[in-house]
Design goal:
There is one protein chain. This protein has 495 residues and is an alpha+beta fold. It has two domains: 225 residues, PmbA/TldD fold, CATH 3.30.2290; 255 residues, no CATH class. Strands 8, 9, 16, 17, 18, 19, 20, 21, 22 and 25 form a ten-stranded mixed sheet that branches. Helix 1 packs across helix 2.
């Protein structure tokens, strides 16, 4: 038995795990000791329907033995449990080796001894719960004051996370990170003449403290949201089975980026390691450097260093530093999202740092980082403000917010809805529509973009609920983008 170091801290336990892994002859090993503090408040109508304040703590050990992975995890942070989990992970690797056809190899990574913490102004966990609940009730009361005009339901929420991780590896890394996340929003539903239509508003989920909540901003949006829900329920339905021009705000476009660019460029999907939640990918590696993913003015950049980004951190869950790189450059597919295993298979000298596990009990996998659409350059032939796009559109639809979506098993063919729609005629917004969906093939869509917003109109939109894997893991990421105009897009289906 290895002599346990003292005192009983995450660092000393991680050191013990790495010593045991090395003595067992593994070619690689890592230990992650994590504590997650998650606080969710949700108000429905005039009551606080959910209040959760949970802490989860534990560790996971992953080893690579003779080209096979083994992983084990426990919520008991003790020396004896570390010894037991290391032994179990090694036994699992031995079992995996028996049926594994290809030996795992990893792209190299340097050893890092570092600390990282999300820059915040106000720790959200120091703000009294009563203050948070009072804000939600104030939002709902204001929304429900429109009851005589049809607003029948209201909701509001606040979500906060503090993620504390100590990572150690046989490469020599020892990394401590503290990551904060904050996310507020609200919405309402109007019910009139048997129809129900909703409208919402969110401050995008970002890695910030309580300063991101900005109660004054949330309250200032209430009247607009209620009025638009009422207008929407009285609006005419959108057209069916036509082709038209779309003008998409960042609040809608980010999900299209997520599903049609983010997931198809996860290299584990490309290689077929992962097929849960809408399959593998059409963007296979022989197309790298060749595939015209979008128009020549389309650039998608991954950036885990982006201030406030939901996927921003110092190091990924394999100890690889946060980076930024182009995935699509001047319309061409040029790179992928990798962990160390897939980067080695692609022939890369290093991973670009996309490994993430959503829990101490989860195995790291390739996850979408912050992935954004670059703004149009100042003075560029295809750069236009949102107002200019509208003024230059004879006939089209303006879309804000997200709604339903679907995409096929190769991430080629998709359909998206939205939260609010307006008809554009002869350069003017002339009234609201409802029940609009648009559909396209991924590369057709991005090659049909003829106008990009400038940097001044870039918004950090994103998601805190990206599901992947089996058992499912949840990750979060920002898709900073600008408004775009897309020509000749199919609206709805045949009547």
């Amino acid at each position: 038995m290895v002599q346990a170091p003292a005192p009983n801290t995450a660092t000393s336990l991680a050191t013990l795990a790495i010593d045991l892994i090395r003595k067992a002859g593994c070619s690689y090993g890592e230990a992650r000791f994590c504590t997650y503090h998650v606080q969710n408040l949700y108000a429905r109508d005039r009551s606080l329907s959910n209040l959760a304040d949970n802490v989860s703590s534990g560790f996971g050990v992953r080893v690579l033995l003779e080209g096979a992975w083994g992983f084990a995890a426990s919520h008991r942070n003790t020396y004896t449990e570390v010894e037991r989990m290391v032994a179990l992970a090694i036994d699992i690797a031995k079992g995996s080796r028996l049926s594994q056809q290809t030996r795992v190899a990893l792209a190299p990574v340097k050893a890092y001894r570092a600390r990282y913490a999300t820059p915040i102004e106000v720790d959200p966990f120091t703000v009294p719960m009563e203050e948070k609940a009072a804000l939600l009730m104030q939002l709902n009361d204001r929304l429900l004051s429109y009851g005589e005009r049809g607003i029948k339901k209201a909701y509001s929420f606040l979500n906060f996370t503090r993620e504390e991780k100590t990572f150690a590896s046989t490469e020599g890394s020892e990394i401590q990170q503290t990551i904060y996340r904050s996310y507020p929003g609200f919405g309402c539903t109007a019910v009139v003449n048997g129809d129900a239509q909703s409208r919402g508003y969110e401050r995008a989920p970002l890695n910030l403290g309580y300063e991101h909540i900005q109660a004054a901003d949330l309250l200032s949006q209430v009247d607009r949201v209620a009025e638009e829900a009422i207008e929407k329920v009285h609006a005419v339905k959108g057209p069916q089975d036509i082709r038209t021009t779309l003008i998409l705000k960042p609040t809608n476009l980010f999900l299209t980026i997520h599903e049609s660019v983010g997931h198809p460029t996860e290299l584990d999907r490309v290689y077929g390691y992962e097929a849960n939640f809408a399959g593998t990918s059409f963007a296979t590696t022989e197309k790298q450097g060749e595939l015209q993913y979008g128009a020549p003015w389309i650039n998608f950049r991954a950036d885990r260093t982006q201030p406030g980004g939901r996927s921003t951190l110092g190091y990924d869950d394999e100890g690889v530093p946060a980076q930024d790189w182009h995935v699509v450059k001047e319309g061409i597919l040029v790179d992928y999202l990798t962990d160390r295993e897939t980067a080695h298979r692609l022939g890369r000298a290093t991973s670009n740092g996309c490994a993430y596990a959503d829990s101490w009990a989860s195995v790291p996998m390739v996850r979408i980082p912050n992935l954004g659409l670059e703004p149009g350059p100042e003075g560029g032939a295809h750069t236009a403000t949102l107002a200019q796009m509208i003024a230059d559109t004879e006939d089209g639809i303006l879309i804000d917010g997200i709604g339903s979506f679907s995409i096929d098993q190769q991430r080629r063919n998709f359909q998206f809805g939205g939260d609010a729609f307006w008809k554009v005629e002869k350069g003017k917004v002339v009234g609201m529509l409802k029940d609009v969906t648009y559909q396209a093939m991924t590369t057709d869509f991005w090659n049909s973009v003829d106008a990009l917003g400038p940097a001044a109109e870039r918004e950090q939109c994103g998601t805190n609920m990206c599901g992947k894997g089996e058992p499912m893991q949840i990750a979060q990421m920002t898709h900073a983008c600008v408004p775009v105009r897309v020509r000749n897009i199919q609206i709805g289906g045949p009547q």
